[in-house]
Task: inverse folding
């Protein structure tokens, strides 16, 4: 299989986070559970209605283009993409064909072909022997990004999609929640034995990164087996069956001619450079620090790559880490406690102790705890206990440490008495240590830490045991 060349191009749709739909003033609300509530004559395609372009949606796509170092269009227009399906109330979809808003650009080393703007379709819900259509989603602004066919593995394709989701969230243009259908991945996959591109198949509506990677791996294997057996791959659109773990044929792949594109006569042509809100200099001022830039900055502090990714994905944790950096508190210790202990507490209680304003403790109190750990004033066990109290109840780490007697004990006389007691109570462990079993020493230190509720300095305690056991 290694002799075959895999080529993947992605088409990714993301619903934009605007107040209203793309061409009307119906509410854009992905959390609405009641069917057919956010609708009007325009998005339902009633005769005689006229669409109006949502400026905020256009602006959102232009911001994505700037973030990807793409070329923003000077001239753009909207087209009608004609096809008949129950989820298209007008019998056509308003999209963009020859003149997309954005061309070129790059993300994660993957070159971008174009980004255009269109309206989403309604949502079909299939029952046992009938189907229902919810038009709440019909007309929601939908950004479609198309990559060049330059991706060579399913893993890299999934990584690109994850990075795009992160970028959209940082820009604030889309929540891009795949489980809610706000971001959908479609993969064009081909396999060949030489440098030419093979016949591609498109796998549509992949609704999670895991599913997308599984579907692409399956399709690569399926096409390879066909070629190995001397067959030919058919260009078609395929779906993914999660229960069977395989793709299945849906229909023969359409070409652009099948959609009979033509400019929408009800919408004006746009000269982007003539619209003040769309000026690239003005838009650039609204671009925040992007995920790639923040990732590099975090790694420069010395934290692990895995920790950096967790922080990038979680705004609340990232805010705390930013305060750690600015205050000079130990970054590596802070990152470990944020991405292991604090996120564990958040998961355990389903974020109940996290509000819109943040945690019950202040950033300064968390940084103080990190300094206490860095200076050896408290041990790791005490640090975890203090953080748990801060998370659940709030409070200063010093007052919590004092109240609980959690400051690290380094008094050799006091610890010496404790060590002698432990040695006397554990003669078999002492014998193991004298036989050269290093684990015995760690066991004795563990007993001492337990006895002092984690407040003993483990290094000091270890040295005392070694001296007494000579």
Result:
């Amino acid at each position: 299989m290694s002799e075959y060349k895999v080529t993947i191009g992605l088409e990714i749709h993301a619903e934009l986070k605007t107040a209203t739909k793309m061409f009307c003033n119906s509410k854009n609300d992905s959390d609405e559970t009641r069917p057919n509530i956010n609708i009007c004559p325009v998005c339902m395609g009633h005769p005689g209605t006229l669409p109006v372009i949502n400026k905020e949606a256009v602006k959102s796509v232009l911001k994505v283009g700037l973030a990807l170092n793409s070329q923003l269009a000077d001239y753009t227009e909207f087209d009608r993409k004609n096809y008949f399906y129950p989820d298209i109330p007008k019998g056509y979809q308003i999209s963009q064909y020859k003149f997309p808003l954005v061309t070129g650009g790059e993300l994660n080393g993957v070159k971008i072909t174009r980004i255009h703007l269109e309206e989403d379709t309604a949502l079909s819900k299939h029952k046992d022997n009938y189907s229902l259509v919810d038009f709440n989603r019909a007309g929601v602004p939908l950004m479609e990004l198309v990559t060049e066919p330059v991706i060579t593995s399913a893993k890299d394709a999934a990584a690109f999609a994850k990075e795009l989701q992160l970028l959209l969230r940082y820009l604030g243009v889309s929540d891009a929640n795949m489980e809610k259908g706000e971001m959908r991945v479609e993969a064009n996959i081909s396999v060949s034995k030489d440098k030419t591109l093979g016949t591609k198949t498109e796998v549509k509506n992949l609704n999670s990164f895991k599913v997308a990677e599984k579907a692409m791996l399956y399709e690569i294997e399926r096409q390879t087996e066909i070629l190995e057996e001397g067959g030919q791959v058919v260009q078609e659109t395929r779906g993914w069956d999660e229960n069977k773990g395989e793709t299945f044929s849906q229909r023969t792949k359409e070409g652009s001619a099948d959609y009979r594109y033509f400019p929408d006569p009800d919408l004006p042509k746009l000269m982007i450079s003539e619209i003040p809100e769309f000026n690239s200099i003005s838009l650039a001022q609204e671009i925040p620090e992007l995920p790639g830039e923040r990732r590099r900055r975090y790694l420069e502090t010395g934290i692990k790559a895995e920790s950096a990714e967790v922080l990038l994905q979680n705004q609340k944790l990232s805010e705390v880490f930013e305060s750690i950096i600015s205050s000079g508190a130990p970054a590596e210790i802070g990152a470990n406690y944020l991405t292991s202990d604090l996120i564990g507490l958040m998961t355990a209680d389903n974020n109940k102790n996290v509000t819109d304003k943040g945690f019950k403790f202040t950033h300064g109190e968390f940084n103080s705890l990190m300094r206490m750990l860095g200076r050896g004033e408290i041990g790791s066990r005490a640090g975890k206990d203090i953080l748990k109290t801060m998370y659940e109840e709030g409070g200063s780490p010093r007052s919590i440490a004092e109240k609980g007697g959690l400051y690290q004990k380094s008094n050799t006389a006091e610890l010496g008495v404790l060590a002698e007691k432990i040695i006397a109570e554990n003669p078999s462990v002492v014998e193991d240590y004298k036989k050269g079993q290093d684990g015995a020493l760690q066991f004795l230190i563990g007993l001492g830490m337990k006895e002092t509720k984690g407040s003993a300095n483990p290094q000091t305690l270890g040295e005392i045991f070694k001296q007494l056991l000579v």
